From TrEMBL:
GO terms for biological process: transmembrane transport. This is 2,3-diketo-L-gulonate-binding periplasmic protein YiaO. Keywords: Signal, Transport. It holds the Pfam family DctP.
Amino acid sequence: IQWRFAIEETIGSVQHQYAMKFKELVEERSNGEIEVTIYPYGTLGTSDQITELVDMEVVQFAMASPGHLGKLIPEVQVFLLHFLFSDDDEINNQVLNKDPRLQKTFAELYARKRLKLLSIFSEGWQVWTTKDPIHRPEDFEGVKMRVMTSPLLIAAYNAYGASPTPLPYSEVYSALQLNMIDGQENPVFAIQEMNFYEVTDWMIFARHAPFITTAVTNREFFDSLPAERQELVTGVVADLNDYILKVQREFNQERLSLIRKNKPDLEIITELTPEEREAFRQASQPVRDRFIRMTGEDGRKLLEELKQTIKEYEDQQQN
Ligand code: 6CS
């Protein structure tokens, strides 16, 4: 039996590491009866096209990031809101992976689109790379920021006064090079492997949002599997949750050193002052209303629920 797994990132990425571990565990636990083939970004098309391929069951498994999936499932855009998550990515990991309420809410939303949600996880903090320094929202004035293709991201950067430009991942490098855009955001490992730092001069860690992704499978395919195969899949993805947190931390740390080494004159703002972050936090608040307008009463409840859950886990941590 052949299973196909498409990822939205290239070889050497966090998603690739996830898919490789998935392959290893599935092949091992099926005693070699199942063989998993991985399709890295570039072999099958953009994120949107990859999600369509899951729908058509051309591939059975894929990564579907809310940054692009928001066009299909508006509610996942809650994961794109700025200054919503904890500063502690361990807490965020628990909220995303271990909270049954959140899992259930999203499982239903995905199921309506014939997808089965397998896992939600962070690939690390979004980091801005730009041609000029950014310290406060005003610095974004007129800056053409590339964003992923979900509508909420346009609202998120409009709120700072930027000119957001949605583009697929594959077009970011050349758009920066040709000055069609002035900046972009991605986790460090992605900035390194896509070489975005080569065509920007500043790197700014605002810790405004984690980059969150989801692993999905075709629902009909999954439902048609015998119970033990379904358990095989859910068992493997459950085991991957802690693994991937470790991987993303390592990758983001190592690649930052590599970037520094490859481009010593890159200016890096490793952290904004509390006052600077506060100005962004405040400017980002109206975007929550936009999210609610896009998703209605269900979206409002979802946002409240997520805020509440993050708070609960943060309180637990302190006690
Ligand atoms: O910026 C993007 O579009 C992409 N970034 C990452 C880190 N993964 C997939 C996503 O499509």
